[in-house]
Give the backbone structure.
Amino acid sequence: MRRITLIVTAVVVVLFIISWIIKTNTVPEDGTFRPFIQGFLVTFAAFLTLAIMSFLYRDNPFYKFAEHLYVGVSAAYAMSLGFWTTLVGNLFPRISQNLSDWFGVPFLHYEWHFVIPPILGIILLMRLSPKGGWISRWALAFIVGTTAGLNLPRFLRSDFIEQISSTFLPLLVQWQGVGPFFSNFSLAASGQFIAILTNITIFLGVLCGLIYFFFSKEHKGVFGTASRFGIWVLMVTFGASFGYTVMGRISLLVGRLTFLLKDWLGIIS
Amino acid sequence: MTNIGVYISLLLIFGGLLAILIYSLKGRDVDRRIIFLFVLFSVASAIIFHIEFEESATPIVKKVFEFVENLPPESKILISFDFDPAMKPEVHPMANAFVRHALVKGHKLYLMGLWPQGQALMTETIEYVLKPEFPNAVYGEDYVMLGYKAGNEGVLNVIITDFRKMYSTDAHGTSLDSIPLFDDVKSAKDMDLIFPVGGGKPGPKEWILFVGDPGNVPIAPGLAAVVAPLIYPYYPRQAIGLLGGVKGAAEYESELKKNYKEFENVETPALQMMGPQTMAHIVIMAFIVIGNIGFFRARRRKWQEGN
């Protein structure tokens, strides 16, 4: 091990212990854990936050440790909750009175077809077997087939038919003539002008966006202009997505910094 | 003192940005870690010196708020916690604000989740918001915690026809038949409003596809910012309104504070986040401008050298 690695590790361990001691004496008691444990938990959470953030400088063993711990804990948590909510919550009350009593859940009634999912689950686990791995394809085929079958009508309705219907909008909202339009002119979001502008933007945006992806005709003349407008619409969409993504990531940073400054360092109240 | 801190921070940030602009105009590359440092500093200074801004609800958020306002008391509202701790800072505040609003209006809450980690966050909402702020709310009569179920869209496909086929008990192991809130509830179609909070899969999109549209149930998604642009096309036909990222949450919190005196002093984490958000966005926009100036200058220099 390199000398610098040893020094950094030693510094981190010393800082961790100092923080633990300080937090144990300063952490407010909430009755959940003893101060000794509470101090450790806050310090460990701060250490993990800083370990993950250290990746911004460069890859390092502390980041790797935090990353693996996160993946492991998440997987274990999901698996254990899956056992209690799916097997204990849904399966046992339908296949066995004894098992229901053992786990303290009310027995419903026998439903023989509930035996099929655990069989498929066991078949899926055959993937781990060097020789019987092919058997798992049956369960996988069932999953793929069922998911595709269930999703197809839903997507067809919500993402296709409903979305097309949503673009069938009146281009002139509540139109009573040029006179009333100008006499009631307003730039308010709920006003007639903005409503008309919104509908026209949606109509042109969808039409020109589709034209951009229509490659059977050369993008020249009016068709080319519409196609170029389509690109602009797409760019605005990507820009909005980028803006939202930045907002989301900054929110996470604010969340972690608030934890570090408030719960760990106690700088802010 | 706070104001002095704000001025010093702003001076440091903008002074630093100016220095970087000059640096990049000279044709030198700026290390990406400098950008990270600037973002970190701008966010930290806004948190430490409590830089906050006024928020007012946009029509898309207001529609959700007004929908809850106009529901008759004791309406059934289902909230689905479809997120994990990684998404918590931006979507948990909106879930908490929504729970407050629903309970103060006297609605009945059904809490569930399609993400395993959602159950822990659901418990947090119950322990830190629901119980302390609404001590008179009775479990089983005013709210119920169904917990997490594995199965993604499969869960939704079942509860749209029958809750009991998927949830034989609540999260505490009590049979649904002995919970008063389920006396007149058979499926998700019996809900008056569904508020799915999340940003991944399964999440609000699946709620619209598998419950909202086929069951004709009003959906008001609370979204992580990353997926908000993908859900906007469902408004207003398939979603009555939506809360996009921490901005949506802040707008909902501000609306709640404006309309209910009892929530004037409750914690508003989303509103508090808008200060750091603004500072960070200013810095990022400044870096985009600086990057573009540097790019066009370098291109011009190359063109001049070519001639």
